[in-house]
C-alpha cells in the first residue's frame, strides 16, 4: 500500500498518510502537554510547601484557634439569647 492512499467514506476522501501523521502528532502533543502540566503542578506544590514551612503559625493551629473562637462566640450568642428570652 502506498502511504498516500486515499480512504473514501461516502464520497469523502481522506489522505491516509496525512491522517496517520496528524494522529501521531496529536498524540505526541498530548504527551508533551501532560508532561508540562505535571511539571507545573510539581513546581506549585513545592512552592506551597515552602511557603507553609515559612509561616510562624502552622495552618492547622490557625484553623483550630479559629474553630475554638467560633464555638465560643456561638456559645456566647446562645447564652445571650437564652437570658434575653427569660
Give an account of the 3D structure:
The protein is mainly alpha-helical. It has 2 helices and 2 strands. Strands 1-2 form a two-stranded antiparallel sheet. The protein starts with 5 loop residues before the first strand and ends with a helix. The mean pLDDT is 90.
How many angstroms separate the termini?
95 Å
Query: What is the average of the pLDDT values?
Result: 90
DSSP helical segment count? 2
In oligomeric terms, what are we looking at?
A: single chain
Radius of gyration: 31 Å
Task: Give a brief outline of the structure.
By secondary structure, this protein is mainly alpha-helical.
Which key features would you list for this structure?
single chain, 86 residues, two-stranded antiparallel ribbon
Topology (SSEs and partners):
Layout: E1 6-9, E2 12-15, H1 16-54, H2 59-85
Antiparallel strand pairs: 1-2
